[in-house]
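Format notes (please read before filing issues)

Several people have asked whether sequences and structure tokens are stored in separate files. They are not. Every record keeps both together, in the order shown below: the sequence lines, then the token lines. Line labels are part of the format and must not be stripped during preprocessing.
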Amino acid sequence: GNGTLITSELCLATKAALANANKNKFTWIGFDCCLMAVADLATMLSDYYDYMIASQETEYGEGWDHDVWMKAIIENTQVTPEVLVEKITSSFLTYYHTTEQCGHAHFTDGSTYICLSTLSAFDLSKVDPFITAFNSLVNSIGTNQTAFSKFKNSFTASTTYNKFGEGDYGLADFVSFLNTLSTKQNRNVQAVKDAISDLVISNHYCNYYSSYHCVPCGLNIFFPESTGEYILQVDKSQYQTKLSAWKTMIMSGW
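Then the structure lines:
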């Protein structure tokens, strides 16, 4: 009704397209738009695609350098998905590094350059181990309101995380978010980090932005710090995910 494409609609459309094409999966899906490298989306699309390409941050209006990857297919119709997704992600950053589109302008205090470009690719066959590891971590802490408060307090007290989309959408870099947790969770946290490392096969970013506190891992987590962020996510996407323990914990938090 409001024109918003929600995750379930994307999945249903893909499922219908696969049936029409008599295929089990499509090779890859790419989002030439902002803030789509979110764990929840990857978990849902893993049933329908082998690879996903998306940006942790906002994208500039010109988007991907489509000429590069299309030319790669024309020159070699047998190009492997791994090679192709690397060309897409790397050419995106190359373009914005070599043109004024990167936003090469100083902040008002003249302190640094601005560049928020990110693009990463995911091997969606690695989603299930990631889900298992993350659900185990969350279950070890709890899925109630007290657990939510523990996550929120550790996250907001830290200065070592990255928030994306100007902090308006409850999105944070997954690994830097994990780094805010108590050392009591080291074993479970490391298992999730290892799973993310397997899931993210290509991660390119421009690190000229002074608010970046770490190297982006390629994948975002949805974690609302405010009621507004929570309502926005639920209203727009109905918060669809396979991260069941995480969803239960967040829902209980508000």
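For reference, the curators noted about this record: Residues 103-112 have pLDDT under 50 and may be disordered. The CA atoms of residues 23 and 238 lie 28 Å apart.
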